[in-house]
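Example record

The entry below shows one chain as it appears in the dataset: sequence first, then C-alpha cells.
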Amino acid sequence: YLLGRLELGRVTYFFPTHVLVGCIAGIGLFIVKTGVEVTINQPLGVEAVLDSMNLLYVVIIFEGTLRVLEYLNMNKDGKPRFALLSPIFFCMITPIFYTVVYGLDLDIGEGYFFPQLDNAGSSGSGSIESIFNRVFHKDLFDMWRVVDLRNISWSAVVESIPTMMALSLFSLIHVPINIPAFAISTNTEADMNKELIAHGYSNIMSGLFGGLQNYMAYTQSVLYARSGGKGKSSGIAVAVVTSILFFVGPLVASKIPRCMAGTLLVHVGVDLFLEGTYDTIGKFERLEYSGIWLITIVMTIYGMNAAMIAGGISAVSTYAVQTVAYLHPIRGQMTAATLRSSKRDRGRQENEILDSQEIGRNRILMIQLQGHLFFGNMAQLNESIHSILSAEQNKPSQPWIVIMDFSLVLGIDSSAAQAIINLKKIMRDNYDVRLSIFVPGSEHGFPCAYRLTNELDDDALVSDPFEPIDLNKSFSSLGEFTDEETAMLVKKSTVTWVENDHSRAQVCQTLDLALVVCENALISQQNPSLLKDDSIGISDNTDLPVEDEKALALRYLINASPESIDEECIDILFSHFEREVYQKGSILWSQGEESDCAKLLVRGVLEAHLENEAGTRERVQSGRIIGELGLVHGDVRMSSVHCASEEAIVYSLSCDAFKKLIETDPSVARVMDLICIMYLANRVQHVSNRIFETRCLPI
C-alpha cells in the first residue's frame, strides 16, 4: 500500500521484459508439471508416469481435441472467432466423461476422481447446516485462545526473522512480476501505483479478518482474460461464484474427474510456455532470448526464488552489454520554427502558413533521442516526455505534431520498444498530439529485433525498406519534394487530419522526410488545395504543352525567388532561360568543370554526386535550381550531375546571358543573387544541419 501511495510503482520498470517473459514461460512449465501430477495423483517421475498412463491418456485426448478445435476456430488474422470456446470445452469435460463411462458401462477405479475431502459426506453433508458447521467450526478460533506469550521461544523467533523476511519479500515480488507479465499477455497498460494500492487494501482487509496474504494470481487471470472476462460485471460474477464454491467446493470436488483439472492445467501451461519461448522468437536479442530460457529452466527445476536470482543475473548482464556509458535518453528538444526541409520551392501561401506562429512550424516539436534505450532508462524517458509535453500544454504554441528522432540511438531492447509504443498512445490520448512521426535515421529501420516500425506506423508506411519503389509515384505523393534519398520510402499520400482525428502515427526514414510530411500536414489542415496545386505537372507522365510547361517553370522560379521581388522582374529573368532536354544517363556537368550556367529542373529527376566520396549523392526533384552558386560566384563545379529519370526537361540560364543582364538590367540580375542567398540560407537552416547530419552537397 505504501509503495503505491508514495508512487513508487515505477520500480517495476527495472524488471526488463525478457525477465518477465522468462517467468511466464517458467510458470507455464510449472503448471504443466502440476497438471500431470494432479492427473496421476503422485509426484512427477518416469515410473509414476508409466504406471499411470491410463489416467494421462484421457488428458492427452481432451487436450488434443481442444487444440484442433482452437485451430479451426481461428480466422485469417489468427484471432479466435468464438472467445468462449475454451471455457465451454472445460465445462463439458465432466459431463462427457460421465457419459462415456456410464454409456459404455466402463469399470474404472477411484484414481480417476479426487478423494472425499472430509468424512461428513455420509450423513447429510449436503445440507446448509452441515456446510455452515464445517466452515465455522468450533475450533476455528483456537489459534487465538491457546497462544501463551510465556511459552514462546524468543530465540527461535529471532532465528526465524530472516526466513520470514524472505517469505514477505517473495510475496511482494509477485505483484511487480505478475502484473507487468499479465499486462504483456493481454496487451494492456497497467497503472502500477493503483495496483499496489489495491493489493494493499486487499491484504489489510484479509489480515483484519484473520486471512492469509493474497496477490493477483497470474495463471487464473490469464485464463479469465482469454475466456472473454473484462469489466466490473465479470469480476463481480467471478467473486460470487468463488464465494459459493468456498462453501460447496468440498462436496463438488470429489465428483469432478481428475482429467478435467489436468486438462485445464496442461492447456494453460503449454500456452504460457509457448508464449514465452516460441512467440518471442525474433523479437528479442540473442542475449535476452538466452535469458528467457535460463529463467524458464531455473524456475522449472529450482523454483521461483532461484528464477528471480537468474532473472537478476540476466538483467544485469543485458545492461552491461547494451550500455557502455550512461547517457540521458533525450539529447534535446526544439520546435521546428527555425528548421527547413529540402522542399524549398513552396508557394507563397504555403510559406505564410508554415511561418505563422499560430498554425505553422511552431506547432511541430522535435525530440531527439540518443544512446542505448533499455529497461533501465525507460522511466527517465517517460518522465522527460511527460514533462516536456506538460510544459507545452495550454500554450499558444502547444504541439500538434511530435517528431521523435532515433538517429543517434545505438540500440533498443524489447522493454524500451514496448515503452515507446505506449508513448505513442500517451501522446495521442493525454496531450492531444495529432500526428506522431518516428525517425529511425537508417534504411534498416530501428536498431532492435522488435518490429518497432510495424507497431508505430498506423499505415505500415515502410513495410520493407529494401523494396524498390516507383519514383514517379513516390515523388508525386508528397508534392514533388526532394530529399537526400529519403523520398525512396514514400508510398502513401500526404498525411492529413480532420479536427476530431487524433490517431495518426507514421515512420519516416530521415528527419528531412519527416519535416516534409509535417509541413504538408500543416498546409493540408488549412488549405488542402494548395498541395493539389503544388503537385500539378508532377504526377502526370504525359507531355505538357510547351506553353503550360513554361507556365510551370515560371511558377517554380517565382517560388524560388524572395517574396519581395516583383513578378514582372521574374518574368524578365525567365525570358533569358533556354529549354533543354536530357535523356537518362546524360551528364549535365562533371565535377571540376567551369561553371557556365544555372539550370531550373521542370520535369524529371537529376542526381548529383561527389567524385571523391563513395556513395555520397543527392537527388534533385522538379522545381529546383542547380548551379546558381557557380553562376554568381564563378566557382568550378563541386559535384557531378546526371539525369536519373527517363527524361529531364530543364530551363538553363547561361553565364553570357547572366553577364548581359548585369550590364543591361542589374535589378533583374540581382534576383539570381537573392536566389543564391536563399539557397545557402536554406542549406544552413536545413533540419539535417541544425540537428546533427551533414549530408548537404554543393550543387
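Notes for this example: The longest strand covers residues 401-412. The radius of gyration is 35 Å.
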